[in-house]
Write a structure and sequence with these properties.
Keywords: Signal. The chain is built from 6 helices and 14 strands. The chain is an alpha+beta fold and about 325 residues long.
Amino acid sequence: MNRLGFTFLIFLCGVSSAVVGQDVNCGTGEACQPWLDDGTSSRCYLNGRINLRFLVDTPSDVRDEVSGPVWAAYGFCPFVDNLQLFRLTGAAAASSIVTKEISNETIETISSSTKPRYISVFGFGRSDSKEYPEKGVSNGTAVVSVLGNSVCKDPNSVAVVNMLMLSIGMHNGAFNYIQPNTVDRGNSSSTEEGKDSKASDGHEEAGKVPVQPMMVGFRPTCDEVDRCILSPGSVCIGDEPGRKNCGVCHTSTDTLEKAVIQVWTSYFGTDANGASLLSGGMDPLSYKRFAGSRLVSDLKSIVSGIQDTLGTLKELSGSQESNSTNH
């Protein structure tokens, strides 16, 4: 049962890749933007496109050389309610490597900046800063890279997340900005909570009080004692205990340039027509809760099963060739 469940999760997931600076191309249809409070025009529909943009901080020693913030930007236009895996190629390097010209020679080094770098999702911030989520406060951001002094026990290393879980929760196709005293920074498990606080168009009349959209943002992949849930040997990276994410320590620019940050994205709630969004029950964290400690053995069994099948097919193929030769 568990093995089949994870197999289906792998095959149902849509994998998309992007490189730094890739534009959002949504084709002829306009992608929805559920954070906009403009009636029905920006709402999301089941299997319709959504405008999804990730912004990855560059090190402060890079930002100091230019005016204003610098990001590595990644754009996607995925279908709403498809379980999705986004591969951000070059994001690990962009968040951790400093490139300088010295005597007409290009030198790449790991940034020595002590300031953490974040990944943000455009439009996923609180009601007072929707477009650019407030770092360290909003669920729409997460630490993506940090100097390895405390995490990796190596001052010449950097710790970078390798997998993130992003939730996109909607009520009638729009973000639900809840009362601050109803749900704290943690994500709730139900879109029913906070219904009474909403206006009739699906958006709360929040006034001047900043509120977080319900079930929107990054979910921690480390547990409450900062142990990686999906890979016990990984380090945990973040600015808040109990809400960190799994990561890997790097000591060279070569491994950073090859590293890829992956973002699993799933959907909760309802679309603009009231249809239920169901992909939220199929992401790896949900499967981990279902499979428990058997997750690793399930993965090994799946890989072993594939290898056994390939071996059998090879033997059969060899046998058929032998029979053909004898005839």
